[in-house]
């Protein structure tokens, strides 16, 4: 298996100037929470500072960060760009249909133009028109992609439609593996990337969230069959965003970026198992996590060849 197929060297981040948890998405995102102790202005300022520090920490580890500003007041979830676009080896970019109308404003031509300018982009496939048909697929939130094995893992939700998933997989040559997932309270999990992270040698996954026992066994066997070691996460750890991590290529090897909250939720054995394969880079983003996403959601990975 080629490590670099799964592990990008570069990411896109968005630094929000007016961040706030999005009331429109709270209906089906049980991971969102509120902080009545801080004013909206304080929350926005803290989120700005968290993204600034997270970008600097990743850069210090040798990851290239393309940092964009969002000064608008109408896109509260813009800090999560991995939902509206993804990039793929061979020079391909996908643009996705978003479930919440407020999130459709996050799509930015300047991000796509930067990718064309600095990387080799052959085509941009835009699925956003499916929004008019009520069909959604929120990028690498809705899908967790195994780039090496060409598998797209996807938990069914309002934000992941079977038809759009099939269309993506046909275009990009992935095999879809679809399942139903729920939290400890039985609520459907809104995005696959909060319960699953696929690295080069290790996979973090909340197997107990997968409702069908037979499907659960099939997914475990498929991941182990790819040569990866599974770190099975509990409902408590999924709730702490431990599954919302991403493996990146740093200056001195592979790093696993996750939040400080997520790292604290790992037990000693799990952490030691991960550290055999990667260096863990913890990013402190408690304000961002109020919006129901964490580090993986903040990083849109770049799987494109860099221009000289």
UniProtKB/TrEMBL annotation:
Pfam family, one: DDAH_eukar
InterPro entries: Amdntrnsf_FN0238
Protein name: Amidinotransferase
Organism expressing this protein natively: Microvirga alba
Phylogenetic placement of the source organism: Bacteria, Pseudomonadati, Pseudomonadota, Alphaproteobacteria, Hyphomicrobiales
């Amino acid at each position: 298996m080629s490590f670099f197929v799964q592990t990008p060297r570069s990411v896109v981040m968005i630094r929000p100037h007016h961040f706030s948890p999005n009331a429109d998405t709270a209906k089906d995102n049980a991971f969102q929470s509120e902080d009545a102790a801080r004013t909206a202005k304080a929350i926005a300022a803290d989120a700005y500072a968290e993204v600034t520090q997270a970008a600097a920490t990743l850069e210090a580890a040798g990851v290239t960060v393309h940092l964009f500003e969002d000064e608008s007041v109408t896109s509260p979830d813009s800090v999560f760009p991995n939902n509206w676009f993804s990039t793929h080896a061979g020079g391909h970019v996908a643009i996705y249909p978003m479930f919440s109308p407020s999130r459709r404003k996050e799509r930015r031509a300047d991000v796509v133009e930067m990718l064309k300018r600095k990387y080799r982009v052959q085509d941009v496939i835009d699925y956003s028109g499916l929004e008019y048909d009520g069909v959604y697929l929120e990028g690498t939130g809705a899908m967790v992609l195994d780039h090496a094995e060409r598998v797209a893992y996807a938990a069914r939700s309002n934000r992941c439609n079977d038809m759009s998933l099939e269309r993506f997989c046909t275009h990009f040559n992935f095999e879809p593996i679809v399942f139903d997932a729920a939290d400890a309270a039985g609520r459907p999990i809104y995005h696959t990337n909060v319960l699953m992270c696929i690295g080069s040698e290790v996979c973090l996954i909340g197997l107990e969230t997968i409702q069908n026992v037979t499907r659960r066994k099939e997914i475990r066997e498929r991941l182990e069959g790819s040569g990866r070691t599974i770190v099975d996460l509990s409902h408590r750890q999924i709730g702490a965003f431990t599954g919302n991590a991403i493996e990146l290529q740093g200056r001195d090897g592979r790093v696993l970026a996750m939040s400080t909250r997520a790292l604290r939720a790992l037990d000693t054995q799990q952490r030691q198992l991960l550290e055999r394969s990667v260096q863990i880079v913890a990013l402190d983003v408690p304000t961002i996590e109020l919006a129901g996403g964490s580090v993986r959601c903040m990083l849109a990975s770049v799987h494109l060849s860099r221009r000289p």
